[in-house]
């Protein structure tokens, strides 16, 4: 849900509601209303939010995309950036990811300073044999480790 993303992104970036409101030339109450689901950002404010949080507008708006974020800390990313395009098993703080990944393998689609975008397969809870591929945007600081997996040719 958008409201959950807005809270996670704000906290990850280390902003209070007031600080974010000041950046966007809004009131703190407006930010609170967004985060409570009572209203949503206008298109122009959504564009500004995406820029502030270093994500695409598509990522902000896509309800199928879940964002896993930690509060602001520094991390060395050169190792994670080398994973782009590889299939890995991740050790991360996202309990939901760990429970729902069908075979624990994830394909690393993109790595930026802030995020690692992965695709993984899980079984659908309402269907016996069906699987679905999910894409998740995970805060790089939530990654504790990984193992590169060889894919069968």
TrEMBL record:
Keyword line: DNA-binding
Protein name in UniProt: DNA-binding XRE family transcriptional regulator
Keyword Metal-binding carried by entry: no
InterPro entries cross-referenced by the UniProt entry: Cro/C1-type_HTH, Lambda_DNA-bd_dom_sf
Any GO molecular function: DNA binding
CDD domains: HTH_XRE
Keyword ATP-binding: no
Domain spans labelled HTH cro/C1-type: 6-60
Signal sequence coordinates: none
